[in-house]
Amino acid sequence: MVDQKKRSVILIGMPGVGKSTLGVLLAKELGLEFVDTDLYIQTREGKTLQEIMDASGYLALREVEALVLQELSFASPKVVATGGSAVYSPEGMAHLAQNGCVVYLSLTLDALRGRIHNYEQRGIARAPGQSFESLMEERTALYKRYADIEIDCQGQSPQQSLISIIEQLNGLAS
């Protein structure tokens, strides 16, 4: 088995799926640094994701996200929770995939709707008027394209999903 502590783990998936929550738990479990690219963007830009979109549009947010993904240093391994729209940047995803294992966290549309109560104000990079269902359909194909492994988080606690991720990572290494 390859030592997972020597390799980064990249979490992708829809907003509300639990990338940030599971990222913190996984980083703690593996003893790695944790980076949340949404927080990184907000710190870098001095604005919330929604403020960036309100000022410049959703494509501007995707551009900033693409730059941030490519700027990420992997001098030491880390767990990275990406923004839900990271998969729109082929260059950014190539950089992430080159430096770690890409883990797609999935949930059903109904489960995600139950978790997202502020869709209009959450800073989700989407076309004006685009429904959550349409956005999920559009992104799911991209998540699947870039994923090394997929974790179905449906009906699982964060701890159960964490165990699933670690088991799958260990399975890849053996």
Automatic annotation (TrEMBL):
Q: What family does the entry list?
A: Belongs to the shikimate kinase family.
- Cofactor note text: Binds 1 Mg(2+) ion per subunit.
What cofactor is this protein dependent on?
A: Mg(2+)
Give the EC class as a word: transferase
- Example GO molecular function: ATP binding
Q: Which reaction does it catalyse?
A: shikimate + ATP = 3-phosphoshikimate + ADP + H(+)
Q: Name one GO cellular component term.
A: cytosol
In Swiss-Prot or TrEMBL terms, this protein is called Shikimate kinase
Q: What is the lineage of its organism?
A: Bacteria, Pseudomonadati, Pseudomonadota, Gammaproteobacteria, Alteromonadales
Chain sites annotated for binding Mg(2+): 20
